[in-house]
Amino acid sequence: MNLHRIDLNLFAVFDAIYTAGSLTKAADVLCITQPAVSNSLSRLRDLLNDPLFVRTGHTMTPTPVAQNIIVPAREALELLRKSVQASHIFDPLIAKKQFNFASRDLLEASIIPRLLTQLENQAPNITLTNFEIGYNKIVSEMANGHLDFFADATTFSDPHLSKHKIANDRYVVVAKKNHPELRQGLSMETFLQLDHINVSQNPQAQGLIDIELDKLGHKRRIKFRSQHFLTVPSALVKTDMIACLPYHLAKHYDVAIFELPFKVPPLEYFLYWHISMEDDHAHRWMREQIMAIAHTYQSHDARMQEAV
């Protein structure tokens, strides 16, 4: 059997004939013409190499092959119906679904923990996964359904992706508390003299900090390059090195935080998803939760900064 030739509509017609016992009654149930039912039955007979029904008086009697496949055919059709209904009706309280994310900092450090707390009460059977992925695989992984959301400060442009800005941030300098060289604050001279930890997934690419320094004719001393922000705090407390991190991430660590001694453009974080999921009810619900949490989180940060 050539699986590429299978048309699920044929099995819907098959089920109707089996239930109704005649082509005419099946046509009435399906709201199509009797010739259309006959044509579908003919195609299915050819596909399965079996007559499926034989006429007995005014009744279409199923063959042994038809009797064998009617139950799995009905189960498959019912599963399809339920899947279609689920795509239009989403109840987070009973839904069982996994959402896959790709995010390195903002989403994982600040939004996902809050999202997990919210899901405990609102959607107890929904699970989350967060993993790293190369930029060149984002679109394909979203298209095949393996990735639901990508969040980053990187401006990512692709006609197959939708995006929404979820947060603003800024770079700050972090160091161990009571750093011997920073007791009087952080000057440009000290910033350039101290060794730095640089966090980047692409060691060949020049980051925002170094781009701005280059404009000023300066270059910092990078002692250690890392792919992960989580390695920074443990390295800082054991050395006199410093690092530039997004503020929202730095504030979670037990470190001293200083403003940069030069201007750097603000960071903008975006949430990305595939355009094919735009109207999916479950996906839309999750987007709304993420955006609401991000808005509340940003508003809280703004109030805290104003208080200071």
Automatic annotation (TrEMBL):
It holds the Pfam family LysR_substrate. Keywords: DNA-binding, Transcription, Transcription regulation. Residues 6-63 form the HTH lysR-type domain. This is LysR family transcriptional regulator. Belongs to the LysR transcriptional regulatory family. PANTHER family: HTH-TYPE TRANSCRIPTIONAL REGULATOR LEUO-RELATED (PTHR30118), TRANSCRIPTIONAL REGULATORY PROTEIN (PTHR30118:SF15). The keyword Transcription regulation applies.
